[in-house]
Design a protein that fits this description.
247 residues; alpha/beta; five-stranded parallel sheet; five-stranded mixed sheet; globular; binds S-adenosylmethionine; EC 2.1.1.198; S-adenosyl-L-methionine; transferase; rRNA processing
Length: 247
Amino acid sequence: EGALYVVATPIGNLEDLSPRATRVLGEVDWIAAEDTRHSARLLRPLGIDKPLVSLHEHNEQMRVETLRQALDTGKNVALISDAGTPLISDPGYVVVRELRASGHRVIPVPGACALITALSAAGLATNRFLFEGFLPAKGGPRRQRLMEGREREETLVYYESPHRIQATLQDIAALFGTRRVVLARELTKTFETFLDADAETLGRRMQEDPNQARGEFVIMVAGAAPPDDETHALAEGEAWLAAMLAE
Ligand code: SAM
């Protein structure tokens, strides 16, 4: 019986494709890819010419049966996305969930992931972080989601596209004030940049230099300061009082 290999591909720099990933992609019978044309451009230079099946958010459920049959007939399949680690703000969750549920082997082949890459060099706390993926596109729900993170003590991590980066920074400035923000742009690529300031300053930098608004972004926001002892004691006192009153 075959296995599903979940294979990470580069997020920009092709050297980040691991030797193991290259070998697995060369050995499997099929490759399930988010965008088959995009992936063909990655695979062709490696001399990998495999049947590609598309797997995107609109056909994932439908593909489960196809992939299950492939594994049942002894075929090995690799799952890749356009960039980075599949399932991380990318398709694949339904397929992995369903194939595992039916007892099939799912084998991760790790590699690049934008959020981990960004955190590894940002200089923000990494012991705890909250990955929020993409923020909602519409202003109201986006601000709501940001609000939900405001009191969290973990480092907050968001993915953002160049279309909305300015609007999102404005929202962060309005809701987080002078909180420290690290913006990682074009990771592993030629114009890789880390900017470190408050959101308003970052927004201004982008207006002054529109090149800074190009490309792909990971936005990281420092977690809220833990409540100091005094407020903490006060909160505990209040909780105690409430408990007493309830009795
Ligand atoms: N699966 C991918 C991963 O493992 O990171 C993420 C895919 S998601 C559709 C694409 C988003 O990831 C981009 O909009 C951006 O927020 C982030 N991203 C991907 N590559 C990046 C890069 N080279 N630099 C900065 N952010 C990147």
